[in-house]
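Feature request disguised as a bug: please show the residue count (353) next to Malate dehydrogenase in the output. Example input:
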Amino acid sequence: MSSLSLFQRIVIRCGLTSCRSMEKQPVRIMVTGQIGYALVPMIARGVMLGSDQPVFLHLLDIPPAAEVLNGVKMELIDAAFPLLKGVVATTNVEEACVGVNIAIMVGGFPRKEGTERKDVLSKNVSIYRTQASALEQYAAANCKVLVVANPANTNALILKEFSPAIPAKNITCLTRLDHNRALGWIAQRLNIHVSDVKNVIIWGNHSSTQYPDANHATVITQAGEKSVKELIADDKWLHDEFISFVQQLGAAIIKSRKLSSALSAASAACDHIHDWVLGTPKGTWTSMGVYSDGSYGVPPGLIYSFPVTCNKGEWSIACASMSFHELEWMRQRRSSLKRRLWLILALTDLYWC
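Example output, currently without the count:
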């Protein structure tokens, strides 16, 4: 013992260990599709799970994109992210799913001009059937799934139907992008920082049929917390221009960039997983597309965007009073939602046969 340095003796006596041995185990995160180019650097830098959480990335894309995928892997290695403990880049879905704790499903067949909804559904049933089966068989227990690819709610429901062993609460879709858009637009209107706004709600689907709701939103001011309705004092703006803007901003970005919202969608995906895993702040909810249990009169079995709070890796639907506008919108949408559920179930039944 006498030959040891003072520091070594302190370490042994106090039972201290090295920083390396205290490091958390890496979380394995699978990302599919081309938007992953915007998303994976954020994950590797700690934006999604925190600055002390190592990650191991599993990247999956279609065979024609194999060379590009390998280039992404090389760039990730070039960047020397301290939290990144390894990268798997593959076009094999089973290899990509092995041991993953979080799966972010960005790849899918998008609806294009002139394409019938049933044709899009049929193609995505084929894609998500394969991925659901691989996740169910090879992913880690309690794997959390976020579907980003549009139509996100529908694709999440397809994946759920083909992976019955994965708990329904573990399959979600992204409406945090719309939630963040709503926060940002309110902040712009009031000329304040977006971090001072909270508790907007996105009801429904990640599409132009959604209902962005600012009726419960509040703003932190020097005089305390105040409602957005009180500060804006313009019901027509809140129930017309605000809703239309949030519903149509995705299309406006495509028109301007000639590409979809990759950067903001990647940031929103990080926010979604961050809050789901690490929890929402006290008194704050977020919007997530989750499995309906019948809350708010939404047909059970749908993947639908609700206000939720998160704690210890679990989400719960928040309790919010509903205005006349919200109630009327839900009443008008209910039969359409049921028809969509029946169509999806019919298509998945055909593929099960």
